[in-house]
Design goal:
By secondary structure, the protein is mainly alpha-helical. 67% of the residues lie in helices and 0% in strands. It contains 16 helices and no strands. Helix 10 crosses helix 14. The longest helix is centred in the middle third of the chain and has 27 residues. It is globular and about 55 Å long.
Amino acid sequence: MTLSTLPPLAARRCWHAAINPLHATLYFSPDLARELAALGIEGPAAALSTRSAALGAVGPGAVAATFYNYSHAHLAQYLPAVWQKADPEQVLAARLRAADATLTRLLGAETVASPEMAEAADLALRATEACTRHGRALYSAHADLPVPEAPHLRLWHAATLLREHRGDGHLAALLIAGLDPVEALVSHNATGRGMTSKWLRATRGWSAADLAAAADRLRERGLLDAENELTEAGTALRERLEADTDRLDAAPYEHLGAAGLARLHELGGAFVARAIGAGAFPADLTGKG
C-alpha cells in the first residue's frame, strides 16, 4: 500500500469545497431549464437526462444502478421516454451551453476569462489523468466526451469527471457499509451535510413514508437515535464510509500533488464561494430535517 503524500483529508476537502459544488451549479440553474425546455424536456426529466445522457439513451434500470439513491419508480416516470423528445447528443450539447451561461452569470465574464480560471482548469484536468475506468460507469461514460476548449468549460468538464469518479467509488463504499439507497440518504441527512427531506422527496422520488421507514431501519441497527441523530456507531459508520471513499478516490489527487491540490482548492473554492454568493443553490438545500 502506497503511503499518501497529501495532508490528511486534503483531497476530500477540495472535492467538497471546490469540485462537486462547481459541477452541481448546473442542476439548479435556470439556464439549464431554459435550454432543455427548448428541447421539450421539463421538470425532473431535465436533471435526470442531463446527468445520464453520457450513458446513452438508457432506461430507469441503468440510472437506478449508477445514481444509486434514486427511486426506480420515480425514474421510470421519465426514462426512457425523455429520449423520444431529444437524443443524448442534443442533451449533452444543451448541457454545455447551459454550463457556459451559468458560470458566466454566476462568476462574471472577467472571472471566466481570467488566467486563474485557465490555471484551475489545467490543474483539474491534470488530476483526471490518474482517474480509472474499471467499475466506474458514470465517470467512464463522461471520460469519453470531448474536452471543451474554453477554460471555464474545461474546468467544469474536469470537475464533472472528478465528481463522478469519486461518486462511483462512493457507491462501492455504500454497498460495503450495508446502506441501501434510502438509508444512505437519511444517514447523510443526519450528519447535517446532506439534502433536506424536502429536496430528497423532490429530486430522489422517495416519499415521507420511505424516509421514515429507512430511519426505523437505521434505529434498529443502532445507527440513529429516537431524535434522528446519529449515534456513536452511526457517526463511526459514516466516517468509515467517507474514509473508504477517500481511499478509492485517492489517485487523481496524489497525481496532482500537494501543491497542485492546495492551489486547485484555493482557486476552485474561490469560484464556488462567488457562485454561492450569487445564488447558485437554494437556501434550504442542505441541513437536517
